Structure formats: structure tokens, C-alpha cells
Amino acid sequence: MATFGTLSDRLTETFRNLRTKGKLTPADVDGTVREIRRALLDADVALPVVKDFTAKVRERALGDEVNKALNPAQQVVQIVNEELIAILGGQQRRLQFAKTAPTVIMLAGLQGSGKTTFAGKLAKQLEKDGHTPLLVACDLQRPNAVNQLQVVAQQAGAAIYAPEPGNGVGNPVKVAKDGVDYARQKQHDVVIIDTAGRLGVDAELMKQASDIRKATDPDEVLFVIDAMIGQDAVNTAKAFQDGVDFTGVVLSKLDGDARGGAALSVASVTGRPIIFASTGEGLDDLEAFHPDRMASRILDLGDILTLIEQAQQAFDEEEARKVAEKLATEQFTLEDFLEQLQQMKKMGSMKKMLGMLPGMGQMKQQLENFDDREIDRTEAIIRSMTPGERRNPKVLNGSRRLRIARGSGMTVTDVNQLVQRFDQAAKMMKTVARGGVPSIPGMGSLGGKPGASAKRGNKQKGRGGSGGSRSGNPAKRAAENAGLAAATQNAPTGSGFGLGAGAPQPSEADLAEIQKLFGKG
Questions:
Q1: pTM (two decimals)
Q2: Dist. CA 481–CA 488, nearest whole Å
């Protein structure tokens, strides 16, 4: 997540230095805590939160749980992870719905914090969950605020109650109260009240928000805060807590380049849980906030659970079963591949999904260079083919490939590379679907017996293949062997995917999960 990028880098680097030590001394712990303190302060985390956090980490890191651990460095990472979860709120908190409809949700926050956009995102998410939300336009102060909410409501497919034109005209308290009555009449089970904000905290703003709360008696008051405002977030949150007393927090603009201190401060300072995190400008870019998952992302431990949930929402089980059957019977075609690409696009940004994988913080440059439009280009090439060509790529001769390249706006080389990658991917997927072990280009079989390749290499050496010179002249033989050794050292190692020689390979459990995905137990 972009907001925590710098903090994540600093913490990861700190822990990397720890892993070289077999036993931690008090000096090592103090040095680590000092680096963590600097990283948090640089990330704009509130000073009281930093002091409390580092004191707890230091106390636990010097305790018996680290001294008796087999791997002290990993134990310290675990301690930091647990304390991060604690300051982010500890447990996930969901929306509380009223026993008798409608559930009233009031939004509060400064102007520009993202309340109106969040109202649309929340309405869309509630629609997916089977609710019938009603948006109520009570921001009658900001120019065109009512029009903006109407546009957002239309995009989200939600109903809206907006009797006043806004732009300084109308009574927001009366609109809020009438909106709840309207929801009861029209049988909407959730009311989302979008209130006005100001550029800064003032008495008029607080009085209006307090009056709306008294008039509607909301079940939830969500304080929407911009994650990019830094240290001022704490003062703003305290002011709203005193003036309105919100029940939960929404972090907006977590996809920005800010340092993220607001997110790590607001829950700890106010004692109110973070319920939602807004991760983009689209109406689907809204996540339920999980303190444990966010802590894992910050420490570059990945967020596999969120990735799985997004995949489950986007992928059709029936389609997945059909694909598994086609793979097993060797009927997987470019048409099926196109359908899979389209389902992947439903999940959102590939860059964002890849960022949820453990250790991806160390590949930040590769992630930055990743182009999400590559899927669109691939889709354009496949759509430029005839149905017969998609079903049987073997018929693609030179003239056909030239026609496809021109039709998709790509080059013949791009078409050739796509066909080649599809062939390789199809072979791997067929192998996995049958319960076998795939052979990845540049890496060989992932499930080969240990030492098998070494034995083959020894045999070749014994035969005089590439194991060394067989010259009868001792001086010449020594020179040739030295040249072979130098060439071996300089030879590129690793896989065809650009990973290093020491790149982690899938475990047996990982391969078993892949086989389950394709319907093979």
C-alpha cells in the first residue's frame, strides 16, 4: 500500500539487520527500538503513540520470550507485529445494524476528506450485501455538493433523497430528519447521511453535526479522515470526538503517497476503531479494515487473506469448474484464456494484488514498472483473432499473425510472444490439473529428486561433455579448465522469470493448494 511504503521499507531494513544475529544483546534491542522510533516519527505517527509503542516493544524484546526463542530476530518481528495490531485497534469491528430498520449511518469529517465518495462506496457495498441503502444529501454548504452526491448515487446504483438544491440553500437538520422518515416509507433498511464539512474545525461545523446527530439518533457515526494530513489528523479526530462523539473511523486516500501516520495514530488516540479503508478512487475501492492484515502489509508479510477474498468475489465457481475440466481434457483454448483474463480484471489492479504477496516490498521497482494495461493489450490481440484461431492457435501462420497484429495495434512479435506464453502456461496448467509437477522454463521440474540434476551434471563431466578439458597437454588442459571455471562463475543463474538462483520454490503444500484450485484432490 503506497501510504505505508516508506515506513515499511524502514522497518524491513531494520529487521534484515537483526536476522544476521544468533542472539540479541540489550544493545541490539536498543538499536532496533531506536530505528523503529525514527521510522514511526518520520511516518508522522503522533509522539505519544510512538513513545507508548516503542516502550512496549523494548520491554517485551528484552524479556524471556525473546531470550528463549530459537530465532530471536523472528520473535522481535512477531512482537512488533502484535503491537502494531494493538495500536491499529486490535480486533476488526464491523458495522452495527439496528434491530429495527432503518439503520442510520451519519458521516462526519472535514471538507475534502472524501465523505461524499465514501457514501457512494458504502452504498454500493451494502447493495452487494443485499441491503437497500438511501443516500441523504445534507451537505448544503459546499458548492455543487448535492449534485456530486447525485452523480455518485447514480454510479453506485443507490437511491438518493435530495429535496434541497444546496449551495447555501436549505436546512440540513430538517433534511436529515425527513430523510430518515422517507426511508421508513420507502422501506430502505439503511440511511447514509452525507453531512457538510469545513476547511478547518470550527464551532458552526460542530453545532450543525451535533444537531443532525440529535435529530436522527444514528446507529453509527463514522468519522472520515484523510490519511494524507499527517500530524494534524490527531487534533482533528479529538475535536470531532469531543463535538460529535463518533463510533468509528474511515481512512480515505490510503493509495496516496503520504506517510501514513494518521492511520497509526487515530485509533490509538481516540479509542475508536477503524472500520473501513478507502484504497482508490473507484467505487469498488473500499476494504473492511483488518488491523492484523494492515500490520502484515506494513511489515511486508503480505495480505493473502484479502487477496483470497477478492478472488472469491470476482471468480465464478461454475466457470472455474468448467476450466478445470477443460484443462484435464486438454481443451483449454485462447477463448477460455480470455475469459480468465476478464475475471482477473474484475479483481482490480494487478499491481495492487501483487503488492499483497509476502516479500513484494523488496521488489518495489519491479512493481512500479508493472503495467496493468498489459492485460488490455493481451485481450486486444486475442479479440483480433477469429473464433477458429482462438480454439486452435496452431493454424496461425505468418499472414494470419500479421493481420492480428494490425487489428490489435500491436506487432507480430507481440502476437508470437503471446502464443508462446499461452502454450507454456497451458502445458503447466494441464500438468498441475492432472496432479503432476510443472516444469518451469529455466528452472526445470519443481518436484525433481534432490541431487538429480547434480548427478546428471556429474555424468556429463564423466563423459567429458562440459566437465573439463580432455587435452593431453597438461599446460593446455589447465588453461582450458581455468577458462571453463570463469565462464561458469559469470553464467547467469536463476529462472526464466528473472528470479535469482536462491529464489524460493513452491513447497509441497503450495503445490497441493494449486491442485485443489483445479479441482484435483
A1: 0.60
A2: 11
